[in-house]
Amino acid sequence: MSFSIWWIFTYYFRPLIKWFLRKTTGLCELQRICYGTVSGAPRINGVEHSLNSSRSKQIKQLVDHLNDIAENRRFTGANEREILKGAVSTVLIVKKINPKIHYQFVSAFGKCVEQIWGYKQLISEVEELRQTLFDSDDFSHERRLYDLWDSLMPDEKLESRVTRQWQIIGFQGDDPKTDFRGMGLLGLENLLYFSTEYKSSAHHVLSHSFHPTYGYCFAIVGINLTSMAWSLLRDGSAKTYFYNTSKSLPTIRLFHSFYSYLFYEFDRFWVESKPRDIMEFSNVKNKFEQKIRTLLQNPRTEFRISLSVQNV
């Protein structure tokens, strides 16, 4: 019943309301959003919803075109400027907006387009990395693995490539490559980024993993958090973080930063939960994920690893 009412409202009354507001304000819905909604996630979400709900044939074609570009990762470099220019021009023509008068709209709308389809492109980029299997015959993969060890254990040298020493930083066996099967190279890239870009924080978290009561497998937990970060990105929950944080086209580094925030905060949540043992991991992780999802439902939420956190 509620779905039918919503469908009727969306199909019949929403266009009437938009028409009425256009006549009374002289502004189309996209203009009202860009002028009247705060920047970041609130504005970008509003623009995204308006474009996806449009009945205009030209706008629908534009959305499909941009989706194809993002999926095929062609939204980069000089191509990005041309794509943004074309998208803005299409909307200006369809909505009959004078760019000389509404130059602020041109800028604000272009930024929204950049974030919306930059996010979609990031999903494609992250998925490709996730599907890339760790290959011990690939020097670049092996180099990243050694860099992870050197960053976390700078005072201890590896005895060999396959060794029980890997279990010190939380891998399950003597060869870490077996633990990357689920998340592929993405799991390693996340761990390496956190351990190098937020080195103090990573060492702080690693020290907690050695706790006699609350200890856990650092690397395995990290890979599980990669799965969480990927799920939040893919289902759109992470849009709040990216839309409020990114000042330009969202990059893989921003995804790694998002992951780093999750890892640091999960460690704190884990310790505060005072689990009896590692068998409570799934339960604690689920509670933590629900907490993050709840925070992300607020479009004004921002996640940042501050300097004070980095140097704990």
UniProtKB/TrEMBL annotation:
Residues 140-296 form the ELMO domain. InterPro entries: ELMO_dom, ELMO_domain-containing. It holds the Pfam family ELMO_CED12. GO terms for molecular function: GTPase activator activity. PROSITE patterns: ELMO. The lineage of its organism: Eukaryota, Metazoa, Ecdysozoa, Arthropoda, Hexapoda. This is ELMO domain-containing protein 2. It comes from Sitophilus oryzae. Signal peptide: none annotated.
